[in-house]
Design goal:
Largest sheet: 11 strands, mixed
Distance between the termini: 73 Å
Length: about 600
């Protein structure tokens, strides 16, 4: 059968997964009466809730006798590690660009990787039915982007289609607003070359994705690079240096058909398959016929830029909600994650009770923590810190390109806040519709915790996109959070009577009846210093002071933080306690005397 392998790459929310839905429908993958969820490729709960793609996933459709393997990739820079590996499995890419937003930073990041590998892109301008479309300017931006990424003449001569993924049409004429995706299928078949691989050579296969199955054990996914593989064939796994890690048999070979993985008897060069039967082999290993001793070189992955400390939860409320609370369970889970997700690095601390987990950004690590708490883990999480490097004796820190789309009236506030965070403005231009697009080069350190403040400053209308740019000179101290916190001075239940008087002190994070412990952060102080308070004091009731005398207490609803907001909010001496049901803020040292001792030692 004719075969084509393509990846769909785009920025967040430019419509990749929705377009794949329509490709399924129009290729006959689904029956006419089959009930299919929207964005069928976003298969796990977190992807459905957030509306973003987190994991890269292969699928396949059949069209006029040609099988097209499609890989849906995440659009967020934090999950870039997924995309970098995937590109070695395909022979062409479809670059999807929003007809209004144009080429965004993530588009640049992935496209640069694809062009370096010599892949020829098909550009699809999506959402052409938007009222604020600016198709021609967007195409010019894409061309300029390709030039800046040093594309070859062949890559610059890219075909263009104008589409609406939601409405299911694509055309070469930008004025048409109807039709089917037939032109896109045709363009993939004509423009993407079939895999030019040797079917007669010995079998080799590079692992790009790893998952687990309760029945099959380890399932390795990738593209067959050469030769053929049959069920029960003897195979072995090689590491990057060519050492044999293990030998075994291909107990099961599965190929992708739509959303399903279907068992097949054999696969040949060019097929994207999943293979079971090995117990140790992992991502970037080469699986091959036992006669092969040369490994396939895997794509190098960009290094992590941010790290957090994952510790055993040692608060007085530990073990009440979670089922997995020991350091051994946390260790096993983190090392398992690092094995399948090559963009994450885990190192064990000397005390064996905490682990340094390095990744690409707050969102990537936030998703890992959220996944773990849903599995029943309890954790203590420290403030994120950037990973510094040293060059010629000079301290270097990671910088990010930050692109902000904001209403004109809020642009002044954004520029002022970014200056405080040591960011340099590199570009500022009107983007139409009363909006301005501002580009900054900012140290990653300064961007930690800014997103919530940014949404407040822009009344929720601003859009911020960030992307790792380079390692540059260290910018010195950057001012952190201005306000101190309110700290509980005892253990018990929060009482409305005392919370009512504490509301004057600042913003509360807890409500009446919530369980508290000494050292727990219960609110934000209106002043810069921390304040220890008693939120459990009840009204003294006697015969004279009867309970019905006063007016009913009306408390302002407490401010409840999401996991990402909590991680961004805390200071260096604070932690986030994460359990399956609750997220609490606390001081690292719960005892006030210990906190004083530590602050004196730090000052000295």
């Amino acid at each position: 059968m004719n075969l084509r392998n393509v990846a769909i790459i785009a920025h967040v929310d430019h419509g990749k997964t929705t377009l794949v839905d329509q490709l399924f429908r129009q290729s006959g993958t689904f029956r006419d009466n089959q009930r299919v969820e929207e964005r069928a490729m976003d298969s796990n709960d977190l992807e459905k809730e957030r509306g973003i793609t987190i994991l890269a996933k292969p699928t396949s459709v059949e069209w006029n006798g040609t099988r097209i393997n499609i890989v849906d990739t995440p659009g967020h820079a934090d999950f870039g590690g997924e995309v970098e590996r995937i590109l070695s499995m395909v022979d062409g890419v479809i670059l999807l660009v929003d007809s209004s937003e144009g080429a965004m930073p993530q588009t640049k990041f992935v496209t640069g990787k694809a062009l370096k590998l010599g892949l020829r892109p098909i550009v699809v301008v999506n959402k052409i039915d938007r009222p604020d479309e600016r198709i021609q300017e967007v195409l010019d931006e894409v061309f300029d982007l390709f030039v800046s990424l040093e594309a070859t003449d062949e890559q610059l001569d890219f075909p263009v289609l104008y589409a609406s993924g939601r409405n299911g049409y694509a055309n070469e004429d930008p004025s048409l607003r109807e039709g089917t995706l037939e032109p896109l299928f045709q363009k993939i078949v004509d423009h993407v070359p079939p895999p030019a691989l040797d079917v007669d050579a010995p079998f080799t296969f590079l692992v790009t994705l790893l998952d687990r199955d309760n029945f099959l054990g380890r399932v390795l996914t990738g593209r067959v690079t050469s030769g053929k593989v049959k069920v029960n064939q003897a195979i072995h796994a090689l590491d990057a240096a060519g050492n044999v890690i293990e030998t075994g048999r291909a107990s099961k070979i599965m190929s992708f058909r739509g959303l399903e993985r279907v068992p097949v008897d054999e696969a040949q060069a060019g097929d994207i398959i999943s293979l079971a039967g090995l117990t140790v082999a992992t991502v970037a290993n080469t699986i091959a016929d036992t006669s092969v001793s040369e490994p396939i070189q895997a794509q190098p992955i960009d290094p992590p830029t941010l790290s957090m400390r994952f510790a055993v939860n040692d608060s007085p409320m530990a073990g009440r909600e979670g089922t997995k609370v020991t350091s051994r369970m946390i260790r096993d889970r983190l090392f398992r994650e690092a094995e399948s997700n090559v963009a994450i690095k885990v190192t064990e601390a000397a005390d064996k009770d905490s682990f340094e987990v390095a990744g690409r950004g707050e969102l990537q690590l936030g998703v890992l923590i959220e996944t773990m708490r849903r599995e029943g883990f309890e954790l203590g999480i420290s403030r994120p810190r950037v990973l510094l490097q040293e060059e010629n004796g000079q301290k270097m820190e990671p910088y990010e390109t930050v692109i902000i789309d904001v209403d004109d009236e809020h642009s002044g506030a954004v520029v002022e806040k970014m200056n405080l965070r040591k960011a340099e403005m590199t570009d500022m231009r009107p983007s139409g519709g009363g909006k301005t697009r501002i580009t900054f080069s900012a140290p990653s350190r300064g961007m930690i915790g800014y997103h919530g403040e940014f949404l407040s400053d822009t009344r929720g209308t601003g859009i911020m996109n960030r992307l790792f740019e380079k390692y540059g000179p260290h910018k010195g101290t950057i001012e952190g959070r201005k306000n101190g916190v309110l700290i509980s001075n005892g253990t018990g239940e929060a009482n409305a009577y005392s919370l009512n008087s504490l509301e004057e002190r600042g913003i509360l994070f807890v409500g009446h009846g919530e369980a508290l412990y000494e050292g727990m952060v219960i609110g934000e102080n209106a002043k810069p210093e921390d304040l220890e308070v008693n939120p459990m004091k009840a009204k003294q009731l006697t015969n004279i002071r009867s309970s019905g005398k006063d007016d009913a207490i009306r408390l302002t609803p407490p401010k409840k933080m999401t996991l990402e907001q909590a991680i961004a909010y805390i200071d260096d001496d604070e932690m986030v306690e994460v359990t399956p049901k609750t997220i609490r803020l606390r001081k690292r040292f719960l005892d006030p005397h210990e906190r004083k001792r530590q602050s004196r030692a730090k000052a000295a």
